[in-house]
Amino acid sequence: MFDEAGEDELLLAAMMQLGAKGGSMGAAAGGAATGVHGLGGAGARGGARGAARGFKWTKKDVSTTVVELSGAVTAVSQLVHKTLADAGNLIGAETRDDGGIAVRAMVGVGMGGLNPTVVTAVVAAGPEGVAVVELRAAGREGLIKRHPADNALAKITGHLKAASQ
According to the lineage, what is the superkingdom (predicted)? Predict the structure, then answer.
């Protein structure tokens, strides 16, 4: 079942991947400039380690919203699944005990999509002919508040509303 602790683990892993990618590129560029090649692996490890250390200094930003879409739960859940897949990388989907369908994805927001945000959508039956989509986004922000969770939800809700019309 999707939980808040899982969000933190996913965000940490995504930040470490970004740090590793940046460290690898920096080490490769520095190695090429100095004539010492093959430093990409060491740079990747250092970048990932630095991202993990910096992660503890960031604060978690969480935002939630509810969207009502016309249609059956299965049709709306397929729409949510496709929307999250198009916006980011799907992490998983599950059927809940109450009959709701939960889908989770990692969505990049900000400049170049470099700020990872975990988006969880739970689709449940609402009033007659309406499915209720509860969205929760969680991201990390540092000294400059960019509100990644709000940005991710705005991105997803815009896509959902446009696709349902």
Answer: Bacteria
Angle at the Cα of 69 (from 68 to 74), degrees rounded to 5? 115
Give the CA distances from residue 23 to residues 13, 89, 129, in Å, rounded to whole numbers and listed in that order. 15, 22, 51
Q: How far apart are CA 81 and CA 77, in angstroms?
A: 6
Q: Domain 59-164 falls in which CATH fold?
A: TATA-Binding Protein (3.30.310)
Q: How far apart are CA 146 and CA 51, in angstroms?
A: 18
